[in-house]
Amino acid sequence: MKNTERVISDDPTSASVGDVVWSPVKSLWFLGNLTAALFIAPGLFSMSALAVFIVLTAITLCFGHSLGMHRLLIHRSYECPLWMEYVFVYAGVLVGMAGPIGMLKQHDLRDWAQRQEKCHDFLLHGSSILKDGWWQLNCDLRLQNPPIFHIEPRVLKSRFYQFIESTWLLQQIVLVVPLFLLGGLSWVVWGVCVRVVVSVGGHWLIGFFAHNRGQRTWRVEGAAVQGHNIRIAGFLSMGEAWHNNHHAYPGSAMLGLYKDEPDPGWWVLNALHNLGIVKNIKLPQHLPQRSELVTEAINLGQRVQRVPENCDIATFIKRAG
Ligand SMILES: [Zn+2]
Ligand SMILES: [Zn+2]
């Protein structure tokens, strides 16, 4: 077995043998929000509710899901003060997908399973789109011989992470109350229900395509599935849809590695780095060489690589301060 830092097993069936079972909390949470988004939200539409939806979705996905949960908590691809880590990861909890430890486990199980020769269809999005949608948004996989997880004590023992892990669903109240007071039911439905459906549903949809079709720059030899870059979702996913790049360089804080791959999460990170708050950003050239990584694209020489840049806004803020 090809073990990762946090996931370990010596049983060759551990990534592939298991049953998909209905998960009541996950399913009712998603379907409840979907019902509200389809049948209640249109009647409560207003321009202000739409603005609330857009702003909250962008903030929670960019700062929370992409920069907080994925690039920081899970991959440790940059360093920042602890208060900033907690703010970012908290914004990630508000996306409405899972708590920090739940997200970390889900992500690392997939990451580990996809590197094996055999991997369950649930973990590599290997079924038809309808079946995969039902599975990912309403069910969990119970592996017969699950691997062992080693989660670092700084995450597992953190009182803050333990608290938001056990209350991740209830944390929506932190948004519901001010939204209701400021804009009534309309803001609640658009700012929570529609946002959760678009974020959680969009995450699944991109995950489905990112493991089935789309452009590939690299191939990981011996892996059960390859990642693909989903160009049309690159910008809206805050850079997360450059999934072929991520399979090639999982520890890189930059996901859109070329100038023609928009990566809003990286733009924010680059600005924070310019401000001096974020340090030690990891890029592909800082990661250990992988013998299993093969270049598939033939035009790499003509493409312009993205590099850390000076940020005008950061310079302006620094001068003003
Ligand atoms: Zn993947
Ligand atoms: Zn990842």
General description of the model:
- The protein is mainly alpha-helical.
- The protein has one domain.
- It is built from twelve helices and six strands.
- The strands form three sheets. The chain has a two-stranded antiparallel sheet with strand order 1-4. A two-stranded antiparallel sheet has the order 2-3.
- α1 crosses α9, α2 packs across α4 (100-115) and α2 (47-74) packs across α11.
- The mean pLDDT is 96.
SSE order, one letter for each helix or strand: EEHHHHHHEEHHHEHHEH
**What compounds sit in this structure?**
zinc ion
| C-alpha-based Rg, rounded | 20 Å
Shape: globular
The termini sit apart by: 53 Å
Helix and strand arrangement:
Blueprint: E1 7-8, E2 18-22, H1 24-40, H2 47-74, H3 82-93, H4 100-115, H5 121-124, H6 129-138, E3 139-143, E4 148-149, H7 153-156, H8 159-166, H9 173-210, E5 218-220, H10 243-248, H11 264-274, E6 293-295, H12 312-320
Antiparallel strand pairs: 1-4, 2-3, 5-6
Helix pairs in contact: 1-9, 2-3, 2-4, 2-9, 2-11, 6-9
This protein binds zinc ion (2 copies).
One zinc ion binds at residues 114, 211, 227, 243, 247.
In short:
By secondary structure, this protein is mainly alpha-helical. It is built from twelve helices and six strands.
Characteristic key phrases:
single chain, 321 residues, mainly alpha, two-stranded antiparallel ribbon, two-stranded antiparallel sheet, 12 helices, 51% helix, globular, binds zinc ion
